[in-house]
Design brief:
By secondary structure, the protein is of the alpha/beta class. The chain has helices at 13-27, 38-46, 111-125, 185-208, 246-261, 271-277, 285-288, 290-302, 307-318, 335-351, 458-462, 473-489, 546-563, 582-587; strands spanning 74-76, 102-107, 150-156, 170-172, 211-213, 234-235, 239-242, 267-269, 324-327, 331-333, 360-365, 382-385, 406-417, 431-432, 437-442, 445-449, 453-454, 465-467, 496-508, 511-512, 515-516, 519-523, 536-540. Helix 3 (111-125) runs parallel beside helix 10 (335-351) and helix 8 (290-302) packs antiparallel against helix 9. The structure holds flavin-adenine dinucleotide. Flavin-adenine dinucleotide (FAD) binds at residues 107-113, 155-158, 162-165, 167-169, 171, 367-369, 386-390, 393-394, 410, 412, 449-450, 504-506, 540, 542-548.
């Protein structure tokens, strides 16, 4: 069997069209409006919450007369029998004649896996076997009793955010360093903001007691989410990308208007404005005083021989420069807290009246899945691999050449004020984009990243998480490098202390003419011989853009799984890993039965 990975050729026009309707619905949301994605917003509303706080809930309508009535709060799981740990789990409160649940396993509880789980439930709320909802559809329009429930089992060897997602800084923006918009960047940010709203809503409801959840398995490995390390899931003070040299300053000025036309929220700002919104920022000399540098450029120009070269250089020199790109609506997420809350939102959705009775969202922590034929994920109607940089730990994906991703390690540091010192970070300052970036999780906790370390391995990816710089010289060097570089942009940082150093691995996808795009598709080899196609799915290659793309990818994979049709995935993303060597499965020591 050939092992060459490929992006598939184009889908049928019909299926593409339907997928695009949903993407289009997401595109209607803007970065300035926390939630405008109609489908996702309606899910929040179906959960009985508003954007501004806990919505007054009407009386909860029992979805099955056979179920015990719930009290004034939603007790998720109390009236539902806890699912056992694998696919043989029977559905919870099904009455005779109720539709069989569709059982879906998701391996990997990072951005990709949790977003997939949430969207699978959301898709179920809309009718898993029905055509996709149009943008304005309201799930309540179709009676939940006629819809097929879904059981989503999320497996992770460490816990929620146990991989790169727990390391990532949460600077959410759709821009390249030059100020251009990345592929579907505006849609991606809008889709992420809709999930952030769902996560915040779940947290508000749980905090206020409007809903309660039965204990799930330990949700994170680091427990940082429990310690609520920031003060909020999302820090909404805007973001800014200061130009680090005159060339970048010109690019930002040049591309900002076109990006704004494409839906970007960023505006090019001058030096005074930059210093006003980010007091203490260092502005490089050529950006602060371009005239002096233009004179130097003119001198260089006169040495050019060809007239066309001189003309181009003169045009470049005369082009306007911006000290920074400012995104007033930019958001910084605490990714650990966000993912834990999004998983809770998924559980609440499974138990809500918006989804049919019998829906389950269950986390299985400490479950390292070595093969898609492993008995723990056998018997599912679909298995979604969302293992990030560790996807190669799945035997069927482990052969060289099966996955076209390149693994790149990186460190980040969390800085806190030095002992008995006030924080040098102004409460109202925006997050700083760049290399390195500074993501304020609160006024007293800054996340600074990231280093780029090539040649990482699957095993490196599996050891993602906090590292001890005292015992790990790479971590020590990385921390020193990050603090030094971040201090060059924002000198007050130098006075802060390193609290935590983390390491993670990105799975970078190959470059395409449209940019580095994530990979979504059906994995070859998981068919039952019934002509229905393989039950195995893949979502990965989120690279350095996990935050922007994961929500959109979650919607795409949920749609593809619901329809059993990879053609609903946009052509640019589509990728079908080929299972190359069946003997690998045997050598992994797992049951290779059908
Ligand atoms: C240092 C660093 C900084 C970054 N900063 C940013 C940033 O600022 N913004 C941004 O958008 N992106 C950033 N990224 C990229 C971002 O982190 C990734 O794109 C994203 O986290 C990938 O998400 P994922 O769900 O695909 O993978 P992961 O988050 O790695 O999740 C995979 C999960 O699968 C589990 N798993 C793996 N193998 C198995 C198995 N065999 N069985 C069971 N479970 C398994 C893991 O435990 C893990 O929880 C950064 C990455 C790094 C490394």
């Amino acid at each position: 069997m050939s092992g060459s990975p490929k992006r598939q050729s184009g889908p049928t026009a019909g299926t593409r069209g339907r997928a695009d309707v949903r993407a289009g619905a997401m595109a209607t949301a803007s970065a300035s409006a926390p939630v405008t994605c109609v489908t996702l917003l309606s899910a929040c509303e179906r959960l009985g919450a508003s954007r501004d706080g806990v919505a007054p809930r009407g009386p909860r309508v029992p979805r099955r007369h056979s179920k015990p009535d719930s009290s004034s709060s939603d007790v998720v799981g109390r009236h539902r029998r806890r699912a056992r740990s694998h696919a043989s789990v029977a559905s919870i409160d099904r009455a005779p004649g109720d539709p069989e649940p569709r059982k879906i396993a998701v391996i990997g509880a990072g951005f990709a896996g949790v977003a997939a789980a949430y969207h699978i439930l959301l898709r179920c709320a809309e009718g898993l076997d029905d055509p996709p909802a149009i943008a304005t559809a309201d799930a309540s329009a179709s009676p939940s009793s006629s819809r097929r429930p879904v059981e989503v089992h999320l497996f992770d060897e460490k816990g929620i955010a146990g991989g790169a997602s727990g390391v990532a800084a949460g600077l959410l923006h759709p821009y390249t360093p030059r100020g251009k918009i990345i592929w579907k960047g505006v849609d991606g940010v809008a889709a992420t903001l809709a999930l952030v709203a769902a996560a915040e809503d779940a947290e508000r409801r749980l905090d206020s007691g409007a809903a309660t959840l039965e204990d799930d398995e330990a949700t994170t490995t680091t427990s940082t989410a429990e310690r609520r390390r920031g003060e909020a899931i999302a820090w909404r003070k805007g973001t800014v990308r200061p130009a680090r040299n005159l060339k970048q300053a010109r690019d930002l000025a040049r591309f900002a208007p076109a990006s704004a036309t494409a839906g970007g929220e960023g505006v090019a700002i001058d030096c005074n404005r930059l210093r006003a919104i980010l007091p203490g920022v260092d502005v490089p000399e050529d950006v602060a005083n371009p005239i002096a540098f233009i004179e130097k450029e003119m001198e260089e120009m006169s040495k050019l021989n060809s007239a066309s070269e001189r003309r181009r250089a003169a045009e470049r020199s005369a082009s306007p420069a911006a000290a920074a790109l400012h995104i007033p609506e930019g958001v910084v997420l605490d990714s650990n807290r966000y993912l834990s809350a999004l998983w809770n939102a998924t559980r609440l959705l499974a138990a809500s009246d918006a989804t049919p009775a019998g829906c389950v969202a269950r986390l299985h922590v400490g479950e390292s899945i070595g093969s898609l034929r492993d008995e723990r994920v056998r018997g599912y109607d679909a298995v979604v691999v969302a293992c990030g940089g560790a996807a190669g730990s799945i035997a069927e994906l482990s052969s060289a050449g099966t996955l076209p991703t390149t693994l790149q390690g990186g460190h980040v540091v969390e800085l806190v004020p030095a002992a008995e010192r006030d924080s040098p970070w102004d409460e109202s300052s925006p997050g700083i984009l760049g290399a390195p970036y500074v993501a304020p999780l609160s006024a007293r906790r800054l996340l600074v990243g990231t280093t780029k370390e090539f040649g990482a391995t699957v095993e490196d990816a599996r050891r993602a998480g906090p590292v001890d710089p005292g015992a790990d010289s790479a971590a020590e060097t990385a921390a020193a490098e990050l603090v030094a570089k971040a201090s060059a942009t924002y000198p007050p940082i130098e006075a802060m202390d390193v609290d935590i150093v983390r390491y993670g691995v990105r799975a970078n996808p190959p470059r395409t003419p449209a940019g580095s795009l994530p990979l979504v598709g059906r994995i070859d080899g998981g068919g039952d011989g019934d002509g229905a196609g393989s039950r195995w799915w893949f979502v990965g290659g989120l690279g350095a853009r996990g935050l922007v793309y994961h929500a959109m990818l979650g919607a795409h994979i949920a749609e593809a799984v619901a329809r059993g049709d990879p053609d609903v995935i946009p052509e640019e993303l589509r990728f079908d890993p080929k299972v190359v060597d069946e003997s690998i499965v045997g050598s992994a020591g797992v049951d290779s039965g059908a």
